[in-house]
Amino acid sequence: MARQERAFRPYGQDHGVFTELDAVGWFVVATTAAAPSSGGGSSDLLRGLLLATVVVATVGGAALVVLLPSPVPPPKKGGKRRR
Question: Which of 47, 65, 45, 69 is nearest to 57 (CA)?
Answer without folding.
Answer: 65
